Amino acid sequence: MMEQPMFSLADKTVVITGGGRGIGRGIARACARAGANVVITGRSPDPLLDTARELGALGVDHLVIPGDITSPGAIDEIVRKTEARFGAIDGWVNNAGSASAGDVGPMIDLDEGQWDRVVDLNLKWTFFAMQAAARAMVGRGGSIVNLSSRSGSMPCPPTAQYGAAKAGVDSLTATAATEWGHLGIRVNAIAPGVVLTETSQSMTNPSRRRRQIETVPLQRLGVVDDVGPLAVYLLSDESSWVSGTVIPVNGGSRIPIGLLTYLHHKNKDVEV
Ligand SMILES: NC(=O)c1ccc[n+]([C@@H]2O[C@H](COP(=O)([O-])OP(=O)(O)OC[C@H]3O[C@@H](n4cnc5c(N)ncnc54)[C@H](OP(=O)(O)O)[C@@H]3O)[C@@H](O)[C@H]2O)c1
Questions:
Q1: Is position 162 annotated as part of the catalytic site?
Q2: Digits of tens for pLDDT over the chain (272 positions)?
Q3: Would you tell me the crossing angle of helices 22-33 and 228-235 to the nearest 10 degrees?
Q4: What CATH number is associated with residue 29?
Q5: How far is the CA of 19 from the centre of ligand 1 (A)?
Q6: Contact partners, residue 113, CB within 8 Å, separation at least 6
Q7: Residue 35: inside a domain
Q8: Which distant-in-sequence residues (6+ apart) come within 8 Å of 195 by Cβ?
Q9: Is 34 part of a structural domain of the chain?
Q10: Helices 125-137 and 160-180: crossing angle, nearest 10°?
Q11: DSSP secondary structure code for residue 71 in this structure
C-alpha cells in the first residue's frame, strides 16, 4: 500500500474565509495541492470564481460561498452549506480581515467608525467564526487556524485598532486551544509580516517598501505562497500535538515596520 505523503489533507474539508484573494487564495491553493476539499468565502464574486477555477484545475472538489462574514446568518450559512456538500468540517481558516486605507490614521484621531469596522471584522467575527467552527467539530475534532499579524504583538502605528484586534485574536487562540483541547479541537494562529497582496501594495509606496525590506533579514517581503504551507501543516494530522501557538512568518524580521514608518515621518525635521 502506498503511504500518504506528509502533510496530506486528503479526505479533509477545509473552509477558508476570504479565500478569493491575497493570503486566503494562497492558503486555498496550498490546501488544494494537499488534496483537501476546499470551501472559499468572500464578498466579491470575481476573485472567488478565479480561485475556484484554479482549485478545479488542481483537481479538488470545492465550493464557493459568497457573502459578507459580518452580516447576520453568514457564518451559519457557511457551516450549513459546507456540511450539506461535504458532510463535515475538518479545518477552518479565519483569514478574512484587514484594515482599509480609510481606517488608517494617528491614534489620537481615530473615530468610533474606524474602530468598529476594523475590530468587528478582525476580532468580533473571528470569534464567532471560531465558535461556529468548533460547534461543527464537536464529536470528531478538527483544526482552526486564525490569521493574526505581527502587529498583534508589536506597536502598530498608524493603525492602533488593527494591532489591538490581532492581539485579541492571539488571546482567543490561546483560550480556545485551552477550552477545546479536550474536544480534539486544535487552535493555532499564523502571524505574517508584510505579505505582498493587492491590499498591502495599495497601502504603500516605493520608499516605504524599501524601508520594509530593510527590516527583513531574508531581504524580501512575503508572498502569499509563503503562508499557505504553514496553514496546511497546522490543518494536517502531522501537527496533532500543536495547539495554542501563534507562529510568525516574517522573513526573520523582529522590527515593527509601522513603528519605523512612524519614526521616519516624526523625525524628519529633527537634527541629529
Ligand atoms: N498582507 C499582509 O501583509 C498581512 C500581514 C499580516 C496579517 N495579515 C492578515 O492576513 C489576512 C489576509 O490578509 P490579506 O493581506 O490577504 O488581505 P486581502 O488581500 O485584503 O484579502 C482579504 C480577504 O478577506 C475577504 N474579506 C474582507 N472583508 C470581508 C468580509 N466582510 N466578509 C467576507 N470576506 C471578507 C476579502 O474578500 P472580499 O473583499 O471579496 O470580501 C479577501 O478575500 C487578514 O486577516 C490580514 O489581517 C495580512
A1: yes
A2: 667 789 999 999 999 999 999 999 999 999 999 999 999 999 999 999 999 999 999 999 999 999 999 999 999 999 999 999 999 999 999 999 999 999 999 999 999 999 999 999 999 999 999 999 999 999 999 999 999 999 999 999 999 999 999 999 999 999 999 999 999 999 999 999 999 998 888 878 888 888 889 999 999 999 999 999 999 999 999 999 999 999 999 999 988 877 877 887 788 766 65
A3: 50
A4: 3.40.50.720
A5: 8
A6: none
A7: yes
A8: 22, 23, 221, 222, 223, 224, 226, 227
A9: yes
A10: 20
A11: S
User: What residues pair up with 65 in beta bridges, in sequence order?
Assistant: 41
- DSSP secondary structure letter of residue 110: -
Give domain status of residue 81, yes or no: yes
Those residues whose C-beta lies under 8 Å from the C-beta of residue 81, and which sit 6 or more positions away, are: 39, 63, 65
Q: Cβ(91) to ligand 1 under 6 A?
A: no
Between helix 45-57 and helix 22-33 the angle, nearest 10°, is 20
Residue type, 150: R
Q: In sequence order, what are the residues at sequence separation of 6 or more whose Cβ sits closer than 8 angstroms to the Cβ of residue 60?
A: 32, 35, 36, 37, 38
* Residue in this structure with the C-alpha cell 447576520, named with its chain if needed: 72
Closest CA to 193 of 257, 146, 245: 257
Domain extent at residue 148: 13-203+222-254
Task: Answer yes or no: is the C-beta of 189 below 6 A from any ligand 1 atom.
Answer: no
* pTM metric for this prediction: 0.96
State how many domains the chain has.
Answer: 1
Does residue 26's CB lie within 6 angstroms of at least one atom of ligand 1?
Answer: no
